[in-house]
């Protein structure tokens, strides 16, 4: 005797959301085009209104659909950075996910160096050198930690802007802000003299490598500069 197993409702909703997502992405919808109503989706795919609503809610959460009262659903082309910005606070609650994001930030910044060197303008390189000088002055004073963090963020942000890919620069800004707000005392180099001087040297060395269009040297310095992101917590505290 064979037992008939019912498919859980959440599985039906997930399957339906995937079918709708594929339909949206394979068709030539433009942002703001009207799609269908929940009732029409339920009828077309032969599911209950509850299943259709759950599937639609999943796609709305991803930014692919937007509900309009008395009009139905419209198609959206979500901004990936905005989607990430909405997801990151939840990820920040998990130490395991934070460690994965730290590795992602490391790979993003080290990987973007080649594009930065290829596309950096002389004006951008001069601005980077000025930020390195500002960091040196503030780091040696050991007083204004928020300003020190701000200059460091600007320095890295400018390198990512040099890549010429706005998505890369925007993702780096999100991740940098996340780590500053999630655990400001962890994943952040100590403020003793040796560390300060090493970071100061690394900043100027990065500027020099970019000026010389030396990809391998820039990558090597960036890897050393960001290696704290890959360290276990016990090695940093």
UniProtKB/TrEMBL annotation:
Transmembrane segments: none
Pfam families xrefs: FCD, GntR
Domain of life of the native organism: Bacteria
SUPFAM superfamilies: GntR ligand-binding domain-like, Winged helix' DNA-binding domain
Single GO term (MF): DNA binding
Keyword line: Coiled coil, DNA-binding, Transcription, Transcription regulation
Coiled coil (UniProt feature): 118-145
UniProt xrefs under InterPro entries: GntR_C, TF_FadR/GntR_C, Tscrpt_reg_HTH_GntR, WH-like_DNA-bd_sf, WH_DNA-bd_sf
Domain HTH gntR-type: 10-78
Protein name: HTH-type transcriptional regulator LutR
Organism name: Gimesia algae
């Amino acid at each position: 005797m064979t037992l008939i197993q019912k498919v859980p409702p959440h599985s039906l909703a997930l399957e339906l959301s995937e079918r709708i997502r594929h339909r949206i992405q394979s068709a030539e919808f433009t942002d703001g085009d009207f799609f269908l109503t929940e009732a029409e989706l339920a009828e077309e795919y032969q599911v209950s209104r509850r299943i259709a609503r759950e599937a639609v809610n999943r796609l709305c959460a991803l930014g692919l659909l937007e509900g309009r009262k008395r009009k139905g659903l419209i198609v959206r082309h979500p901004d990936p950075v905005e989607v990430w910005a909405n997801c990151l606070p939840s990820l920040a609650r998990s130490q395991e996910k934070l460690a994965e994001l730290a590795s992602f930030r490391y790979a993003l910044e080290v990987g973007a160096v080649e594009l930065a060197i290829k596309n950096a303008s002389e004006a951008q390189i001069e601005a980077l050198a000025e930020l390195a000088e500002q960091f040196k002055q503030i780091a040696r004073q050991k007083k204004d930690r928020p300003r020190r963090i701000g200059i460091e963020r600007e320095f890295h942000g400018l390198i990512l802007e040099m890549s010429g890919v706005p998505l890369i620069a925007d993702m780096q800004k999100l991740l940098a802000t996340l780590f500053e707000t999630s655990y400001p005392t962890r994943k952040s180099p100590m403020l003793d003299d040796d560390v300060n001087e090493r970071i100061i040297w690394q900043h100027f060395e990065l500027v020099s490598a970019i000026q010389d269009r030396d990809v391998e040297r820039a990558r090597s310095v960036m890897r050393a500069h960001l290696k704290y992101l890959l360290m276990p917590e016990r090695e940093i505290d």
